[in-house]
Amino acid sequence: MNNTIVIAGATGNLGKRISNELIKRGADVRAIVRQSTDPEKIKSLQKIGVKVFEIDMNDIDAIAKVCEDVNCVVSALAGLGSVIIDLQKRILDGAIKAGVPRFIPSDFCTDYNQLIPGENRNFDLRREFKKYIDTQRIQATSIFNGCFADILMYNTPILNLKDKSIGYWGDKADWKLDFTTMDNTAAFTAEVALDHTAPRDLQIAGFQVSPKMILADVKALSNQEFKIYQISNIEDFAIYIKRQRAENPAGENELYAKFQQGQYMYSMFTTQHTNLANNRYNGLSWTSSKDYLKTFVK
After folding, report:
1. What is the DSSP string of 231-291?
2. How far apart are CA 132 and CA 17, in angstroms?
3. How many domains does the chain have?
4. Tens digit of pLDDT for each residue in 87-127?
5. Are 98 and 84 contained in the same domain?
6. Which residue range is the domain that position 86 belongs to?
7. Phi first, then psi: what are they for 46, rounded to 5°?
8. Is 81 helix (H, G, I), strand (E, B) or coil?
9. Is 70 exceeded by the pLDDT of residue 232?
């Protein structure tokens, strides 16, 4: 059976990786991109075998035309409401018009179904799109990968290599956080895109690691002393994030505003993936926490 998959957001970091994983699995991959897309990004996709269609992303008919005879549409888009809600709706409407049976929305994050609305702005945008897609005549599958492992490289409070510190909130020193590398997420997504039996929601975590476990790993890898400390209790952290957001109205137009970064951290310490689908597909190799940390901890 010929599997044809359309990718929205294929020029992005995750989208290109998903495209490559699908090509490796023998799929026919089409990418829909804006007419203003950087030609070098288009060439990069074409080089790995992706068929690129430059279209007016406001035109549902143009989207539908590319989606003809397609098995699944995968959205790897990133953005605020104009993208996650408005643009995804147009892509979904185009897919439905073309008779596409399946759609994977851009829900690559912690499983927000377990969180209280209002605690994370970017998750709320995805929650609003979910309400829309669940009323449509199409089979949807959301992939929840926790946090992308890359965050561990960026000197966040969870792991600050510059300060040699590891922070946590509340009494969560032993709380396991969900991480998945982009490569692992992309490989799993490719499998889901080709799996017509995939359920509505799938949780994954390449590795689940607590602050104390991170401490042990970085000490072993670096032979240096790191401190681990409680930043504050969970309740005070929530109050701080709300105040930070109220004092920063300009951040509402920023994808990764400071308050949003805090909201991501808050979600990581208040919910966990407990129904992992890591073993759903054979042949996938999951990067462990120590193997990932050793790529940048010296």
Report:
1. EE-HHHHHHHHHHHHHT-GGGGG-TT-HHHHHHHHHHHTT----SB-TTSSTT--PPPHHH
2. 27
3. 2
4. 999 999 999 999 999 999 999 999 999 899 999 999 999 99
5. yes
6. 4-146+181-203
7. -60, -35
8. helix
9. yes
